Amino acid sequence: MNVSPRRSKLVTYALLLSLLGPWVAATAGVFSVTPVRLYMTPRDRAIAVTLSNEADTEVVLQADINTWSQNPDGTDELVLTEDLILAPPIIKLAPKARQVVRLALLKPADASRQLTYRMIIREVPEAVPATGIQVPIALALSMPVFITPPVAKRQVNCTHQLADAKTLNLQCSNTGTAYAQIREATVTRGTQTLARFEGGSYILPGARKTVGLKGEQALTAGEAKLVVTFDDGQSLTTSVTLP
To answer: How far apart are CA 31 and CA 94, in angstroms?
Structure first.
């Protein structure tokens, strides 16, 4: 099977979750988007999004908007919606070109809770020739969109359970009205870090997730300190007893 060199390293319709800071460009090899996370308030009717073509050939992009919810176990649910629209929804970018588009809210925002969406910008594959067996491969970027009233806040509570000798499972639930994203969680005793989780894990309102804190050595019984750090830099600190 022959695949065009420009797309040989792309994953078919891969959804890249946005774990970087809100003003860092999300890059898909062929195109990039800024910002990678989109924040709106109920007063905003539209915000600007910048699309850049990083390739030496023209790229065609298409945008879809999905409502984003999570089941109680934390698994994502995406459903196409017309609550928001990216104008224009299909964008042609010349080589190395950049274009500013507008993401507009078409429905009234909720004054009591955060609305959560995901905007998926997908590369439209080039047409396949009538002859030959080239398979077009495209890539998609999935970016969270948050429409947040001032009263919406996260409310996270965590419990812990030893999964194995070196892993502590942290089960966190969000009973608030805004998302939470765990960027880091550590268990320490004195100056020693016993176990750590690093990455990014979204917990939408009403959902819960389990993250594993892993240590280099077996976790020993006794008192320790658990620190859960969120994407805004705030932390939740509690004392824990390891079995």
So the answer is: 11
